Amino acid sequence: MKNPDNILLLTLFGVFVLATVIQLFYHLYFYLAVSLKKDHKTVPVTEAVTIIICARNEEENLKRFLPSVLTQDYPDYEVVVVNDCSEDGSYIVLGEYIAKYPHLHVSTITKDPKFSHNKKFAQFIGIKAAKNEILLFTDADCQPVSDKWLAGMVAQFDAETNFVLGYGGYFEEDGLLNKIIRCDTMFIAMQYLGMAIRGFPYMGVGRNLAYRKSLFFRNKGFGAHNKLPSGDDDLFVNSNATGKNTRVEYSAVTHTRSVPCSDFSEWLNQKKRHITTAPFYKYRDKLLLNTEPVVRVIFYVAFIILVSTLTLWPVVLAIFMVRLIIQIVVYAKTQKILNEKALLAYSLIFDIFSPFLYAVVYLSNLLSKPDKNGWK
What we know:
Elements: H1 4-31, H2 33-36, E1 49-55, H3 59-70, E2 77-84, H4 90-100, E3 104-109, H5 119-129, E4 134-139, E5 142-144, H6 149-154, E6 163-166, E7 168-170, H7 176-197, E8 209-212, H8 213-218, H9 234-240, E9 246-249, E10 256-258, H10 264-275, H11 283-308, H12 313-337, H13 344-367
Parallel strand pairs: 1-2, 1-4, 2-3, 6-9, 7-10
Antiparallel strand pairs: 4-8, 5-10, 6-8
Helix pairs in contact: 1-11, 1-12, 3-4, 7-13, 10-13, 11-13
């Protein structure tokens, strides 16, 4: 009679092998695509563009970052800043810039105690005010890394393109939290950029995203998701992007960098707000996105059990090393492409713990109601 323990461990070994295969599929098919993508042949575009920035109490960030948006090397563009109920000196800063930059326009939303709204309303005001068909979005706390940002993003548009997904990273600072934020941002970018390259676009980031104004109104704006606190970027892309109408652009000159959260609770609240949009993704995308972290946990748990019980341990260790080597290659290439420095070791650790971190965020959302008018 066979030992039940042996049968159980052999079954676990089979699960481990299957988990490895699935993990390698994600890394080699989706994630590696980010560093292997061939540049799309573009023709320099001179079509007029509107850059839209929504700002609420962003006086210091407008002083620091808006000039880099207003001085892009592009022949015909306007910048629309939606000053949304700001109670700081944003109005004064914007007034000074309007006098200096004639292509800057400001739409002001005044505070009404009888009417509260989320960021989507401010986005809608900005889109309505835009004079041009191509819209490029970023945030008040974001800085384009070069004056070629606008030209690079717009160059991806052709007659069939409705969306261009860009990369928005965070400024490098000292401390562990900054490493976590940048690792998380890189992981998300590998997913949404890689899946878009393979024909499965599911989200973009509002820090660096472009689409057509006509598409927005043709598809009834933010539609059924209008009342959600988040989703002005990812849910709009998820609802309207296809493999044929979406391109990606993340060459070095087209990145943006944002101010990272300064403490863990602030970042955790930000993640809680962002994750509220996940249940509204297409079923296909939810399946693809949820499968990988679940399988990743199974992979690590199975590895620990098999090695600790010495079950086929040379084979198990060899499989683990193959996966680790491929993982290192993919992460190293991605970090180089996205200009995320000194993250390789942290990203390998983050790979282990991130599924549990996201589980905590998800459970926390179940136990508390997010602010329906949350803005950032």
